[in-house]
Amino acid sequence: MAETELRIRRATLADAESILDIYRPYVEETVITFEYLVPSLEEFRERIAHTLEKYPCIVAERDSGIVGYACTGVFKDRAAYDWGVETTIYVKKDCKRGGIGRKLYTALEKVSAAQHILNLNACIGYPEVEDEYLTRDSAHFHEHLGYRLVGEFHKCGYKFGRWYDMIWMEKLIGDHTVEPKPVVPFPELDELTLHKCGIE
After folding, report:
1. Dihedral sign, CA of 5, 102, 43, 188?
2. pTM of the shown model
3. What is the pLDDT of residues 134-177, one digit of tens each?
4. Domain residue limits, the chain
5. Alpha-carbon separation of residue 5 from 42, 60, 98, 157 (angstroms)
6. CB–CB of 59/66 below 8 Å?
7. 7-184, what's its fold?
8. CB under 8 Å to 90, separation ≥6 — which residues?
9. pLDDT tens across 102-134, in order?
10. Strand pairing of 84-91 and 65-74?
C-alpha cells in the first residue's frame, strides 16, 4: 500500500525522539553538523522547547513516521538582529532527494515571513574537496532555493581528523523598510496563518 502524501506540521516535544533519530547519523557519520556527540533525549527535547518559545520547528511526516524536520533560531543575540534567523534542516538519510527538504523549507520560509522575519541565514559545512563525510550538496540545495553565498571561513571546523570550511548563505524574504514590523513569536500565529503557510 502506498504511503499517504507528505504533510508538514508543527513539531511537539513528543516528537523529540523521532527527530533525534534523524539527527543522530549526521552527528556520528558526517560533518554536516560540527557537533561531536549525539545529545541526550532530554537535552534534545529542551532544545526543541527553547526553539518553540519564539521560532518554528516543523516536521515532515508520512505513514511511516517523521522523515525530516526544519527550524529557525536566533541568528545573533542582539535586538538589532531580530529580523534575521538561522535555519536548520535535516532529512532522514534514506529519504533524501525526494523533495522533502524543499517542502520543509518552503513552509519554513512562509511562516518566517508571517513572523515578519526578513533574513534567512544558513551556516553550512563546506569541504575544500568532497569526501565520505561531507559533500557540497547542502550548499547546492540552498543555492537552488534562492540563497546566495555571503561568507566563507577556512579550516574552522575539525572533525574526524580533518579540517573543514564553513560558509554562510542568506536569503532575503522581505522589504527592509525604515520602520520594520515587529517580529511575531511563533506561538502567537493563529491557525489560519499556519494553514496558509502549509503547516498543520
Report:
1. negative
2. 0.95
3. 999 999 999 999 999 999 999 999 999 999 999 999 999 999 99
4. 7-184
5. 31, 10, 12, 38
6. yes
7. Aminopeptidase (3.40.630)
8. 22, 23, 26, 32, 68, 69, 70
9. 999 999 999 999 999 999 999 999 999 999 999
10. antiparallel
